[in-house]
Design goal:
Length: 534
Amino acid sequence: MGVSLREILASDFFSEARVLAGKEGLDRIVQGISSQDAPTGGQWARGKELMLSTGYLFNGNIEYFKEVIIEANEANAAGLGIKVGRYLDEIPKEIVELCDGLKFPLIDLPKDSAWIEMGNAINEIAIDRYIEKLTNFIQVYGNKDHDRKIKEIIEGLYNNIGKPVEVYDFCKNKIYSTFNKSIKNTKLSDYEFIWNPDCKHEKESLSEKFHMFRIENLENKEDSLRIVLPIEIDNIVLAYLVVWENQEKSDYYDLYTIRLSFVLLLHEYGSIYFENSFKDKFQDELIRQIIESNFQNETQIIRKVLDTEGLYLCISIKQFSHEISLYDHREKISRCIYNIFQRDEIIFGLAGKDEIVMLYKKDKDIHKTNEFIKISISQLIKCFENEVIKGKFVAGVSRGFVDIKNVKNSYTESSKTIDISRYIYPESKVVLYDNLGPFKFINIEEFKKENMSIYNEYIKPLTLEEDGQELIITLKSFLECNQNYSLTAEKLFVHNNTVRYRINKIKNLIDMDSEDSVERLKIEIVLKFLKLFN
């Protein structure tokens, strides 16, 4: 950021200052002040500062005077200000010629002003200039959409500090950039090394309040220095603001400008967050209407949000850890869903504290859709379980795409798929309704009532034995392997004789006719639903 010496000298505060030498260097940038009244030369100059001196140490010591100017110029200091007439009555001709030759400004400062007042005056000039730009920006800011506002904020920051700026947006899976084209629908986890590098690095805190930090790669010095600020609402990171410093660290004024731009972005993402939160709550109500209504009359809310001519696939996702309520994790769930699906192709809501219902709009390429859904839901479950600690999720997908009036039936299918799959596919996280085969015709509660007698006759006696669990597992595997002793032994990783011993014991405990295929099938089905009876 900074301001030029020319701008500083044009201000009212410095109206009495005079340029004694080095006028051609008045466009040098000032980004701070420092005092030069110690006998250490200009070695402490760090660049772009206006060095202030009473002139006491220069009086009668022209060589030291030259040394300070040369060292300060080499360090890219903005200039040297002296109160001529206090300790130094006049500036030697050699010093004037040296400053002119180096184009290094030498300035006679106001006599009655303290150093701190001069520093404050320079800060005010720099800050007022930025606030003026900010005010002009805000005047045309209000009527623009979020996307346009974010772009203009980072462009404004880039124009002020001259360093590339990017925003990594988790809400839209998008990268806004001042030096590349914006990238849409990208997997932001591929860029995590930017704010969370896995190499040996140093993280320097620049602002504890804003969690602002600088990252330096200690293994590769050519890797760009960068400033990172997480844009966080309700402890959820919605985006990262990244300023690429390359190899030149930002100064005080630049850091100030970055903070101001960050505040603007924070305000913008706050609006996005609360709009989405409202929208998500609205979708809860919408989902409830869809799965509870018969749709003889379409409500206004449905006509407003849904394409009533479109076709939808219903996906139910249930969470089975009793200590967790999905209402407490709404934003994490939203972020996972929108990280995988586009907003215009998915509608979702919470149907209860442990159930998410999603409606996926039919893609023109139905073959792509079938494959895409299975992969996408698997990724979604993985994201949920990473975000919601101790969460246990299972998804059921309805038979096919239907119009909005028939989604209620599709919801029944997807919900039933989860209920049954827990018994017949206990290890599966995503199950399609069609994967259930004939099991889709089972009504869980009716099945339990109708088959309790089979359980009591064939299974319960085994549970009363000390090795009952082993007997049940062996019987289940034996039937699944078509009563083949060798295959059963191989499946259970036991000796063939062990299987024979257990099967003989089972036959002594229960009256099972293993040659009756119907009787055998009944037992096999009940074994699949064993948890239901327990």
